Known about the structure:
nine-stranded antiparallel beta sheet, globular, alpha+beta, 2 domains
Amino acid sequence: MSENKTLTGRQIEISWPDLGITVTADLDDRNPALADALWESLPYQSLQGHALIAGEHLYHVSPIPKLLHTPHTTRIPDRREAADGTVFCSGLQHLGIKYGTLTEPMPATPVGQIREADMPALLEAGAAIWDAVYSTKKQILAEVRRAGEPGGHRIPKLPATDADAARLIADIHAETEKIWLAPPAELDGLHRGIIPSKAGNFGTVLPTLLFVNGETRPLGYAAYGGLVRAVVQDMPLDSLVQMTRLLVGVPAEFLGYCGLERLWAFTQRFLDVLDRLDRDDFYAVTSQMALYVNCLGGWNLQLYPWETGDHLRQQDAG
Length: 318
């Protein structure tokens, strides 16, 4: 860890019980507000994912609404240059771990470091998780907990004063709990070729799966994540309402046509109450929706048949 100061008493364990692997990370002082948000949310479990185009990087969706908007103190301009074993918390609601070579030069916000003694185990986990996401589709769960303390799991439910907004949040929360550690029936059906609307020309399935993945990710990361950051950063409420109507309706309706009918139903209920929400209730609904949509996005990446394109391999430009 060299010059980074360890936060006293802040060690976390990241465990993959299916693999029989546990690693320990020391949280440090590079981004104390993000480290606090992570620490206060523990313990939790999540479907473990692996980067698909960025290199040797693990990440999963964390049930931490604050990650969407907590400001960073330290930002690594290019995460390719971070030490192997660096643990990140991101505004995409991810906990990530760099375990080897990365190709994507994106900025990142570190919160800690896997202990050197655990690096061989981390490399073993990375290889197994890549195989699961890309080939076998085995669903590997991660558990993140305070070191030496029991594990567990919880999904936060945000409060709202408007009765209809509170009911909507309760329903989103219940659905998120249902699908957090088990594949959503709608997505599972889609990936088995069950598409009630018949979306997909001439009986094809892969194009529909591709479009569902391509619409769900930006809806969670950019639209809902952006709206949460905008309300925290004091964008006027009338502008928030206008941006919401511009950003979320069209992709959610399309995803409903493709099979994500619950998402479309939740979106319609949100748009119906939107004009009467105050800032706190707007924050609560958009945060709850962001967590739900990002959970759907994680399952899309797990279920998608990436190995279908295994015959396509990169060629040298020369």
